[in-house]
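Please check this.
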Amino acid sequence: MNKNKKVNAAILIIGNEILSGRTQDTNTSTISLWLNSIGVKVQEVRVIPDIEKTIIDTVNDLKKKNDYVFTTGGIGPTHDDITAQSISKAFKLDYEIHKEAFKILEGYYKPGEFNKGRQKMVWMPKDAKLILNPTSGAPGFYVQNVFCLPGVPSILKSMLGGLKNEIVGGEPILSKTISLRTVESEIAKSLSKVQEDNTDVEIGSYPFFQAGKLGVSIVIRSEDKLKINKCVLQILDFVKKKKIKLVDR
């Protein structure tokens, strides 16, 4: 793949526990940072419930619009873990026991522990390729450009490294953050001018609250370090003129 080509991805968080607020999603950040480092830009994140039709429709939509789709959640041993079955239907593939995954988990558990409930984790779309799991044994899987990972953050994080050879990205997406003791309204006009002068660089401003005081972090993102540096100089120029204080975060 041409390194100059823009490569994009979508993240699909599957699980009622995320929508109910019982579980906090940290997987979006983990996956996004990892993808940025290998030159893949996340352009969309969706959170959906454990409903088969919703999973099928969303996966079919996202896999057409993105180079890669990453799903998290719903591949465990319980009754509401329906991601693998839903992905099978999305791709019109048989849902069956994956022989290699069966061998992995049969060897992972002690004799007698690989019960029927745990065997649910080896049911996958026909001919799915495995994503190995160095933490808890149960592999994830992928079909074409859709990669299915578990919802447990520590396990998901440990599995990403094994995917590096399967994902072809562009240039790594770089970022620089400038944090200021100010409010957004004070810098909005000046920052808009910098953005207008640098349309191929992504510039965002994000308020924060630290040590009882308000501030704004400006994040500049691009594949080109020189373009980032140019924006930084322009921002620091207006910051100096306005006598705004820089802060460490």
About this structure: The domain at 174-246 is CATH 3.30.70.600 (Alpha-Beta Plaits). Residues 15 and 50 are 5 Å apart (CA to CA). DSSP finds nine helices and twelve strands in the chain.
